[in-house]
Amino acid sequence: MIKISKSSFLKVFGRVFEAYERKSGIFAEHSAEVSGPQHIHCPQGIERGSPDHLYWLALVAMSDRRTNSMVLYRNFAKMFGDNPSLFVRGVLLEVETVTVLFRTYKIALPVSEIAFFIERKRHLDECFRGDPLLIYDCVKNVSELMRKLKSIARSRGIGNIFPGAKEKIFCLLAMFLRKFSGLQFADVVPVDVWVQSISVSTRVVKGKGRMSFGGLGKRLRPLMQKAFLPYLDVPGATDATWILGKFGCTLCAGKDMTTLCPLYDICRGPFERPRNQVSNKHVGMVELPPKYKRRCSEK
User: Fold this and answer.
1) What is the model's pTM?
2) Could you give the angle at the alpha carbon of 175 between the alpha carbons of 171 and 38, nearest 5°?
3) Residue 255 to residues 137, 260, 270, Cα–Cα distance (Å)
4) Do 95 and 118 touch, CB atoms closer than 8 A?
5) DSSP string spanning 105-162?
6) Phi, psi (degrees; rounded to nearest 5) at 286
7) Where are the beta strands (DSSP E) in the chain?
8) With bands split at pLDDT 50, 70 and 90, how would you rate the model's confidence at 226?
9) What spatial distance separates the first Cα and last Cα of the chain, rounded to whole Å?
10) Contact 77, 43 (CB under 8 A)
11) What is the distance between the alpha carbons of residues 72 and 60, in angstroms, rounded to a whole number?
């Protein structure tokens, strides 16, 4: 049975956000402004914080699912910068057009993503007048938002108004929009695979068994709201968990993270997530193994 320690979660991620605020360890080198792809990349000729910039952020964020984010945002910025017609609201793109664009700008996403991209743009235009802030109108958290989007989808007789985009994506987009607007939304730190992996390796999540990413994310999200609350006014702190995962956890097995990682003394290091035996890709589950891998430095 899998159990979650609320007090441990607050302690662990409180450490992460505090370290970011102090710019200590890994955060001395990496910050949201320096390392966040949404800050580094922007379509040429577009003013940051403008309606067109928020529109671009919405469409690229909804395409960001376990990809190389730096490359994805860079290529989307180049594609939109070279093709201003993509910013035009109300224009339904042709599949052939988007296919050529994705290939030209090396946007390495599944073929199904082309149709998803077109549908997401169409519904953003038709249902929200091309304004992603209206997506969050009259909702306080991601649970309320998902109910709102399902209601809109039912009224239109479709399955998903933004196909392929789930809770994590809308937390991510809220995080982006919050910087450029007065958006008030509780879930601005995505409970992504990094947060879930860290929760397991620091024993916030205990027991034995397997749980889907979505199921675990749903249980951890209210705790993340509480953990982040004291750091709401710290610029860029929303990116802290992603930065730790991207520039810390991925290197932990082969680099001395003793002084860089704010969790080193309580984290058991990297562990294997279940993979599909055929594709070798993660199968969307978090597994608590009976024994954790030891750090390379301890072998």
Assistant:
1) 0.87
2) 115
3) 44, 10, 12
4) yes
5) TT----THHHHHHHHHHHHHHHHHTT-GGGGGTT--SHHHHHHHHHHHHHHHT-S-SS
6) -105, 130
7) 2-4, 205-207, 209-212, 285-288
8) very high
9) 30
10) yes
11) 8
